[in-house]
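Case study B.
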Amino acid sequence: MIVRRPLMTRLVDRLEADRKAVRLLQELRRRYGRGPLRLHTPGRRMVVVLSPEHVHRVLAGSPEPFHPATREKRATLAHFEPAGVLISSTEDRPERRRFNEAALDTDHAVHRGADAMLGKINDEVDRLLADVDQRGGLVWEDYNRHWMRMVRRVTFGEGAADDEQLTEDLLALRAAANWAFLHPERRGRRARFLNRVQHHLDRAEPGTLAEWTAKAPTTANTYPEHQVPQWLFAFDAANWASYRTLGLLASHPEHAGLARQDLAGRDLRRPQDLPYLRACVLESLRLWPTTPAVLRETTRGTQWEDGPIPENTSMLIYAPFFHRDDEHVDAAHRFEPDLWARERTEGDWPFIPFSAGPGICPGRNLVLHVTSTVIGRLLTERDLVLEDHLLDPRHPLPGTLNPFTLRFRTEPRPAP
Ligand code: HEM
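Model:
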C-alpha cells in the first residue's frame, strides 16, 4: 500500500488485520518450523521469513542476492520515481544511495543542517498550536496540514511552503501506485510533479535539504529529482508515527512524565538529540510499523537449512510478526520505550521499522530528530488528553491503530 486512504484504513482497523496475520504466521511456524516457508501463490514464487537469523541474513544480503527492487516495488514506485534508489538496479544503486546518504546526512544523529531546519519546524509547530488553541483540541486534519507544510519547508524552503499542488500531485500518483500494474500511468501528472520537484531543487534554498542536495555528489545517472519524491512520500509515514506517539504518551502518563523529565531545561529551538522521545517514536513504529512488508527478490539460487530457494523468488519479511510475536517478545503489546535503550545483537529478535543492512532507511536519523522535536514541543507546551480509551495501558494495545480518528483535548501547561 503506497498511500493509505481513510476508508480502507478504517476497514483494516476494524478487521484487526495485522493481529490476525501475526496469529496465522505463529500457527504456520508451529506447524512447519522456522522457515523460510514456501507459499503456493499462482504465477509467483514466494517465501515467508519466519526466524530472526533469516531476517538478518536476507537484509544483510541486499542488493545481491536479496534485491530490494522487487517486481511489486518497481510497479508501484515507478509511478512517481522511476529512477529512485529503492527500485534501482545493482549497477545504478551505489551512487544513488551515496547521494541520498550525503543529502540526508545519514550517519549523524542530528543532521548537520538542523540549525536552520529547526527554525522552520518550530515556526510550523507555533502555527499548529495557534490552530489547536482556536479549536480547543488537536485533530488529525490540523496536524496533517501543518506537517505537510513543514515537510515542504524543510525539504525545499519558503518558496515551497504553500505549494500544495506538489503534495496533491504526489498523493494522486501514489493513489495510482496503489494499483501497481493495473493502473495506467499518469504521465502528465508525473511530468508536472517531477518538474516542480526539479524547480525547487534548482532554487537550492539555503537552510533546506535542497541545499544539501545541491552539495551532494551526483553524476548524469543520479536523477536527484527521482530521489526526493521518496523523501516526501516517507515523511508521510513519520506523520502517522508521530501522531500515534502522541496518542501513546497521552494515554501513558508515566511515560509522558519521563519524556517531560528528559525535556526539562532543553531549548528545542537548538539542535540536539532527544533520546527518550526517539525511543517513543521507535516504539510507535514497533507497535504499528508503517512499512509492514519488507520485500526482497532473489537474484540467484540460495541454500538454506531446509533446501534451496531458486532465483526470482519473492521473500516477505512481515514486520508485525516479529514486532508483535508474543511467543518471543514479552512486551509485544505494551508501550515499552526502554526496549530501544538496550544494545541489540545479530541473534536478537528483530525490530526492523527502518529495515536493516545496506538498504536500511537513510532518512532514519533525520526523521527521528524531526518527529521527536515536534512531539517535544507539543508535550512541553500542552497537556494532551486522548478523547477515547483505545490505548488503555491496562489492556494489550490494538493490532492496528487508525490515526485519522485520534482526537485530543488540550490545555496549556504552565511555563517550566
Ligand atoms: C517514520 C518514517 C520512516 C520509516 C518508518 C521509514 C522506513 C523505511 C524502510 C522500512 C525502508 C526500506 C524499504 C525497503 O527495503 O523496501 C526505507 C527506505 C528508504 N527511506 Fe525511509 N522511512 C521513513 C522516513 C524516511 C524519510 C523522512 C526519508 C527521507 C527524508 C526516507 C528515505 C528513504 C530512502 C531514500 C529509502 C530507500 C533506501 C534504499 O533503497 O537504499 N525515509 N525507509
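The pocket of protoporphyrin IX containing FE is lined by residues 68, 85-86, 97, 100, 104, 230-231, 234-235, 237-238, 241, 285, 290-291, 294-295, 353-355, 359, 361-363, 366-367 (CB under 6 Å). The remaining cases will be described in the next quarterly update.
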